[in-house]
Write a structure and sequence with these properties.
heterodimer; A: alpha+beta; OB fold (Dihydrolipoamide Acetyltransferase, E2P); three-stranded antiparallel beta sheet; 5 helices; 9 strands; 34% strand; B: alpha+beta; Alpha-Beta Plaits; six-stranded antiparallel barrel; 21% helix
Amino acid sequence: MKLDSTARYQSSHEYARKDGTAFVIGISDHAQAALGDIVYVELPEIGKTFAKGETFGVIESVKAASDLYLPMGGKIVAVNEALGGDPALVNRDCYGEGWLVKIESGSAAEFGVLMDAATYEKEADKE
Amino acid sequence: MAPFAGYDMPISYPTGAVEEHNICRRSVGLFDIDHMGQLIVSGPDADAFVSHTVSGAVLDMKDWDARYSLLLDEKGLVRDDLFVYRLPRVNAAEGRWWIVVNASNLEADFAWFKARAVEWKGKVKVEDVSAETYMIAVQGPRAIELLDSMADRKVSAFPRFTSGEFVIEGTKVLFGRTGYTGEDGGELFFPAEKALAVWEAFIKTGEKKGIETKAIGLAARDSLRFEAGMPLHGHEISPSINALEAGFKWACDFSKADFIGKKALEAIAAAGLPRKLVGIEMTGGVPREGYEVQAPDGRKIGLCVAGMFCPTTKKYAANAFVTPEFAKVGTDVAIVAHGKPKPGLVVKRPLYVPAYRR
């Protein structure tokens, strides 16, 4: 599994990575591989606020639909519009062009409690 | 891998479901479908018995013709769908029929044919030859070109919906120019012990001839058949769905003196159908089996029996049974996905017109 060592992860396979004052949210390589071909991503409206752990969207693969959970609370400041035309970007480049949303977080401490890449790798390997 | 009628089958190969679908539409897809069942019906009364037991016309079929039909019960409900091949007669009086059935229905279909034969009191023999018969499908716009390069007969000379025998990799096969993808190509039946050799010969010959040839898993098999408007047992057809509401009047020959289910279907037609199968294109998500279909005012009007992203048409579409007033092409409906109604439009089926019908 590919990992982004600068990102932090939660056990439902979403990651967060610092991006200036915001955080980029996406799903891990392990998650995209398990889902298979991704064919639709439903993302929230810009400006909406979510608590940590809340459902902020749905990702649909050929096999199934899965809820997306925010790894940290915050306000949506950007969504990846490119996924509308090419949802498979999540398969091809989940840490790069296949990002999902950007949030401004009220609590940067929530970032610190997420798993680092090595810890997440061990946990994902157990699945 | 997924369990399927007692077989472990790949949902997709490493190629990935969407790419597998696209390869079959542009070149050649190989389908390992040994799970399908094969029955032989023969005997002095075989012709009349097959005509009585399946929904469609069969007596007009010439030797080697292959035709789609349904296996109905007395209520007109769909027990299974079949491909019926007329094999050459043993002698002038004795017909032989090769009948391909769905994996999950093999035992029930075999028992059904045998029981109907006893009840019908004809001189008919029904055999299940599934265990010794392997089945693979070779489908796609370059499938016949690939087959032509490997067979000892010109496969391209077989018209659509006919069958015949030839030798491939030293193995005699029964070949039908049929399939379940909406592409040209065929389905091959041959002794099970030759399975690996024949399969690998297709892959190797494809490589050698520069004809892109890849194995196709269950997910792409489903999206290919779905776009082409073909039913999948347990979805568009099942023992709780009658042939008419599923849109299969064309596969029922009402001019036959009798077939199992005929009387019931005539009564259903006279009373009017309470629901009809339609295609619906949806925006704002992926429709899936079990999702509710609503009228624009929020009233429940039906249920999706299949739904997915269609890689060729690049649309999100469902097949659904809806009340007849919403079955017309162009009707606005909604499909409830993740608790929210999403806009849908009733569209013409099939979404992808099969290559051999264009």
